[in-house]
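Quick one: structure tokens for this chain, please?
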Amino acid sequence: MRALLALFVLPAMLGMATGTQAQQGATFEVRSLTPEAALKAASAALAKCRAAGYQVGVAVVDRAGSPLVTLRDRFAGPHTFQTALDKAYTAVTFKISTTELEAVSRPGGAMSGLRQLPRVVAIGGGLQISAAGSQVGGIGVSGAPGGEADEACAKAGIASIADDLEM
């Protein structure tokens, strides 16, 4: 009975998989943030922090975590550049905000080891950028006094391109 089942079911399953693959094709399209939108978001985040009296670094990455734009205000610390970039990278690769990652990766917790991975920053200020339900990039801000202030500036950056993202 098993041999008979294998003769009919396995080929049918393989045929269905092949048919599905043929319908999907060999390539797919994805949406990603443009450099122009990234610059607009980074500039707005920098302006928001500057208006609050903070000197920060801002980075915007594409959907894969590769840098599109980085900005650092004139008196921002030298560490803010890399930290902002790593916050944006973290938000994109983990698909959650760095504030959320901070909460789930606290020392002693089951996910605390995530903090030891290269480029992972579990401090507020890194957010995903989405359009039409798909992740298209990420933004990171570093240098304000605390993750909440960094995140507020990152949100202002995203808000500046929100209308462009929905088109």
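The chain has a mean pLDDT of 90.
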